[in-house]
What we know:
Layout: H1 7-21, H2 28-48, H3 55-75, H4 82-94
Helix pairs in contact: 1-2, 1-3, 2-3
Amino acid sequence: MISQLDPKQVGLLRMITARLERLSVDSIWARRASGLRRSLVKTLERVDNNEPETADHLQQLIEHSMEILKNAARELPDPDNPYYKEKHELKSNLHE
Length: 96
């Protein structure tokens, strides 16, 4: 059964799609996200064309996307970590 889609849910899908596109190509999560991103784009096209789409399917896409984004964020270096600061300072000194 098709239920009324929540505009906030659709907006979140649009934002998530944009975020997935910005993942570093060096990230394993970017490779995993590419297929999901295609699915998100196709789903948003169906929504924009007023084709049938279930709120449950949108929610599944949101949950899966958020899991990938969460894992990709874990790969980002922590600039407050002393090891990161030391490594970054060494690279800066090499370029001087």
